[in-house]
Amino acid sequence: MVDARDPIADLRRIAFLLERANEATYRVRAFRSAAKALAGLSAAELTERAGNSTLTELAGVGDVTARCVAESLAGEEPVYLRRLVATEGSDLDAEATALRAALRGDCHTHSDWSDGGSPIEEMALAAVELGHEYLVLTDHSPRLTVARGLTAERLRRQLDHVAQVNAALPEGFRILTGIEVDILADGSLDQDDDLLGRLDVVVGSVHSGLKDERSKMTRRMLKAVANPHLDILGHVTGRMVSSRPAGVTGPGDRGHRARTRAESDFDADAVFAACAEHDTAVEINSRPERQDPPKRLIRRALEAGCRFAINTDAHAPGQLDWQRFGCERAALCGVPADRVINTWSAEQLVAWTHHRP
């Protein structure tokens, strides 16, 4: 007898690899939905249904996912999974590989509390599997209604929930509290000051008025960077170099349908000088459709003396492995590991965010 594999784990692994490969959302959803549908079955019922070909009678299970389950139960790696593994990714060069190995966490991620596609617990466990030591949860702030941004009350509830999840996670890993707060038109931050002060990490990003004229956008960004609560300046130009990604399956999915979008116009030298002065990190956003900032601006921020955060802006578990894209671009621009804040431990990171000038 050949020992059965874990079919639910195989379905989730397939979904993870599809997300990482930026495949279509409906493909990802098919495997995650099937895993969720089967998770409530006993092992005996799962085996019985696979044997009498009734798995597809369950909502969320189709022919392809049922075939994967049958192969898993027979002790075989599903053909679908085997093909994904055989064709995944590309190798990084030595510099990018070393930088990726130095990263200990991710400072910009989303859950289904805002516009992400998965619960906090799933995001955290995926980060554990990738070898992270921490994950900063940065769901959106209230003004971004299309992404179900968190009101002050919802954010307080999330903080309580994160504390409960942390208590159940493997030793040596923790979720750090955070937010991706909107930088409003006047440069203020879209959340209560007392709450921002409670969070471990605050990422601030411009999501509206991206076509503002140069002097207005510069003033807006400079005011935000000078705010003592802001730790990381997120996707600084707001550009989109390709259409919306796959794998974003949350309620705010429509908020990610942007096609290509030009960079915002601002005085980059002034903004990066302010980041260096206030010790605010510049994000290197790893999302394939963003690639923000462009490499010329990464080099200028490096010359200005800025710190960096290489983040995924992940909205689904498989996207947490997109850090390699950011590392590749950072390495090409000569960014050393000692200028990247998420090469630090969680303790070092939180000490920095709470004691910055």
UniProtKB/TrEMBL annotation:
One of its GO terms (cellular component) is cytosol. One of its GO terms (molecular function) is phosphoric ester hydrolase activity. Gene3D superfamilies: DNA polymerase beta, N-terminal domain-like, Metal-dependent hydrolases. Residues 105-185 form the Polymerase/histidinol phosphatase N-terminal domain. Pfam families: HHH_8, PHP. This is PHP domain-containing protein. It comes from Micromonospora ureilytica.
